[in-house]
Amino acid sequence: MFSREFSKVDIKQLRRTSINPSITVMITTMIRPFARGLQRTVTAASFSTTPLAREEAKEKKRDPTILKLDEHKRERLANFGRYTAECLPKFIQQVQFAAGDELEFLIHPSGVIPVLSFLKGNHSAQFTNLTFICGVDVPTRKNRFEVVYSLLSVRFMARCRVRTYTDEVAPLESCTKVFKGADWYEREVYDLYGVWFNNHPDLRRILTDYGFEGHPFRKDFPLTGYNEVRFDPELKRIVYEPTELAQEFRKFDLETPWEIFPAFREKSMTSGYEKIPLHKEDQEEKKPEATK
């Protein structure tokens, strides 16, 4: 009924106007489907019990929260750090927390193999997965390079890091005998920082090109490098040439980058390190400070 009345009214209005009858018929045929669809929508809405608009959720939105530190986890890791330091007092120099609950062992360079072997094979540790090995360069230190080993224990769902130090000359012992996956990681540290690993099966560059000069992740390495690569159309091959900069791109600033940022002058790279007391006397001294 609604569509019929709607179409009749439209036809009457169109007849009053001076329009060709064939055009009016075409217009009415175009209007009728829309009228029928509108009638069905109104009928369905009148008999339907579901609301057309969405209701607001009754539960309130939860604001994002920062992951809180687990004190029980910290206590377990601290006890394990003390236990490891008691077992290897010759090599472990310090045990600390980084970023709240990340256990770190600071060791002597000669203790890389003993400490990693202990952490992997000890029944209370079982850090059988080597996640990565990376390097850090702090030019203001006497031993400017730091090598970090990240380990994962699937058995206890725990992580720890082992950090040691060296300079441009003193090598470190390769840990490929303990973790076979350390092969490419040590090659990467050698390529980017120049740290040499003794007894490595194939210590050569892995990221930079053949014949590359220097180690690009050192703080004293120039940003533009020493050589530039281009394709010579006359020779039809790639050519290596010394880097040449135009005069407008030259910057006559004699200050080194790490002199501008004071963070490189500090002993700790980041704030938030918490030293774990290894002896009972240190623990007793720390308890009254915590209560205050």
TrEMBL record:
Keywords: NAD, Translocase, Transport, Ubiquinone. It comes from Cylicocyclus nassatus (Nematode worm). It holds the Pfam family Complex1_30kDa. It is found in: Mitochondrion. One of its GO terms (cellular component) is mitochondrion. This is NADH dehydrogenase [ubiquinone] iron-sulfur protein 3, mitochondrial. Belongs to the complex I 30 kDa subunit family. It catalyses: a ubiquinone + NADH + 5 H(+)(in) = a ubiquinol + NAD(+) + 4 H(+)(out). The lineage of its organism: Eukaryota, Metazoa, Ecdysozoa, Nematoda, Chromadorea.
